Amino acid sequence: MVTAVTNTEPRRRNRRGEGGKLRDEIIAAALALLDEGGDERAVTLRSVARKAGIAAPSIYAHFADQPSIMLAVVQQEMDTLTAALREANDNADPDARTRLFAVGNAYLDFAQVHPQRYRIMFGGLWTPSVDDTSITDADLDSLGVAAFTLLVEVLGACIEEGIAHGSDDLYGDAVALWLGLHGLAHQRAVVRKMPGPADVGDRLIRALAHLK
Amino acid sequence: MVTAVTNTEPRRRNRRGEGGKLRDEIIAAALALLDEGGDERAVTLRSVARKAGIAAPSIYAHFADQPSIMLAVVQQEMDTLTAALREANDNADPDARTRLFAVGNAYLDFAQVHPQRYRIMFGGLWTPSVDDTSITDADLDSLGVAAFTLLVEVLGACIEEGIAHGSDDLYGDAVALWLGLHGLAHQRAVVRKMPGPADVGDRLIRALAHLK
DNA sequence: GACATAAGCTAACGCCCGTAAGTCTAGAAG
DNA sequence: CTTCTAGACTTACGGGCGTTAGCTTATGTC
């Protein structure tokens, strides 16, 4: 993770061959703007440039257009999320039930700690217009695959260990489980205060994983 | 529902005492812009005015600012959604299980048929900034209460009829059920094509209502 | 030390936005 | 027929946006 740039002195130009560093700084600046709590509309090409301490057109050396910046942020944060889920999985007791709750709660925590990030990752707003040529469908389809795969594995382990009675369709079960998690995560990322019981996350996991 | 205005002749001024009609036409124009498929950013004060065939400043006679238009649209569509759920409930066979699936699927259908509307209703994007004085927290809190109440009733009927084993917390169970529905509905409203099995909606309902 | 070039800048264009201030006019009231 | 006013309109300001075109200046190489 690149440390956020907070508009200090005029900014030292990068050395030759290190121009690519600015790319990471631009992403970090966009992320910082997001985390500052305004909504995603505050992340404009110009505001990102200001935050990074560069002139707006300098961005074009690294990104084709404004949606491309958002895509890069989303891709990076998907990796961050995946890493968080993996860490939760690895640090938990090795039994499948514990791992399932650990991964599920890590997912929910991410949305609660970084609501703005979660919204651009899954809220669909920044999605480029259909005639955008700089972002392909493949870019969009590949988002979040790694994180979802981990969920499939853990849910599969629950069924293998006999603590959940799955159907014949593990993938479908995992989709349903993720949708439930997403519903809560998204709501937490959107609403000022989420009503409902505190343990609603665990309830969702129990019900959708069909734990015995 | 007011029929959409498509910028015909210069527009006849409303009669005296009927100035309020324009308010409905403004809401209809905003809804039409939304349904045209662009994202919610396309619904600006000026674009709404163009769509309604009026001058931009004329809106200020009826709405304090741009977020207030969105709030009115959301409030109206929440009523539309509630009506759709009620209709599904009333037209279904009177047994609780059938009604539960009818209401749940009506909810999911709304999101699929009107993805843009669903996104502004639950996507949280249009939410005014904290220092906005024209929209109160009470306005936001009261949104969707009627629709949710119906869900609580139907789920309660399932438990009463003994086809679902609820916990001691009906309200919490209903929240969990709604969150699952919302997860799927939102994803359908956001993504170009939703992966996963076709019956994932029914699976969510079965699992989260704890149907026997 | 000259010079080639990567890295980033300045200036500017055209567009759309929200909103304020003041003006016109059709139709109801007398 | 006049008068009044609700229900609009015109004009304008200031600002932010994405993006293009062309220029500057450090940095590494010879």
TrEMBL record, chains A, B:
The UniProt record lists the keyword NAD: no
Transmembrane segment boundaries: none
UniProt cross-references to PROSITE patterns, sorted A to Z: HTH_TETR_2
Xref: Pfam families: TetR_C_33 (PF13305), TetR_N (PF00440)
Species this protein is from: Lentzea waywayandensis
Keywords carried by this UniProt record: DNA-binding, Transcription, Transcription regulation
MF GO annotations: DNA-binding transcription factor activity; transcription cis-regulatory region binding
DNA-binding region range list: 44-63
Stretches assigned to the HTH tetR-type domain: 20-81
Protein name, entry field: DNA-binding transcriptional regulator, AcrR family
